[in-house]
Amino acid sequence: MDVAVLTIFPEMFDRFWTHGIVRRAIEQGYLKGDAIDIRAFAEDRHKVTDDRPYGGGCGMVMKPEPLAKALRAARERMPEAVTLMMSPQGRPFSQQAAAELARQRGLIFICGRYEGVDERFAQQFVDDEISIGDYVLTGGELPAMVVVDAVVRLIPGVLGGRDSAADDSFADGLLEYAHYTRPPVFEGRPVPDVLLSGNHAAIAQWRLEAALVRTFLKRPDLLENREFTAQEIAILKKWSKELEDLIKVQSARCTDPLSGRQ
Ligand code: 4FV
What we know:
- By secondary structure, this protein is α/β, with parallel strands linked by helices.
- The chain contains 8 helices and 9 strands.
- It has a 5-stranded parallel beta sheet.
- Helix 3 (64-77) runs parallel beside helix 5 and helix 4 packs across helix 6 (141-152).
- The longest helix is centred in the last third of the chain and has 24 residues, at 230-253.
- The chain is elongated, with a radius of gyration of 25 Å.
- Bound molecules: ligand 4FV.
């Protein structure tokens, strides 16, 4: 995959390309990352890339000409690339969006600064606008890094055999189960026995239950329109039976303090 980011701060990506899985993906030829300095395409001698907003108001707006020139130069090298603009007005980024983008051969990111880019540039050149969250950042560089980071690990082959994206959070619409590593007891807190059992079927069952209960407690919204498997429904039925039994036992125990009745 070819990735180009158009930014007035290309140096922000120097460390991004050279660390962790992004670095390994580049070294193994799965990813080619390039930060393009928009300022280099500004034709005035002060290399200006922003100007005051028409209609007045505070802040500055990114000029369309340097952006258009920089984008055309990038597209010469990556004619099939999809042009993405990071902005709070974009569609919410998600694991599903990351999986879609990971199937593309090339991605070009427009990293806005100031109040944003001239609307005419956005309408003429941007294929897809993406937001990483309902808050306002100072620039689109960090959002572009977030998207590239989420996408690169989904490129087949990037995550070696040991660590796969298959049981990612959200991969199957559930949050990930809890993870444990050595020592077997940490400050008096043991690792769940089943994980030390070597019984892979029991471990898989435990992990599915752990993912379900976590999602139920932390992100019940994820379960609303989710298709449950037969195995998952069996787990929910088991839980509801256990809950009913618990309620029966507990209600038998506790008497209503006011009426004294059960
Ligand atoms: C943003 C977001 C974001 C807005 C003005 C950059 C800033 C400045 N991008 N998700 N939230 N962008 O806040 O993607 O140009």
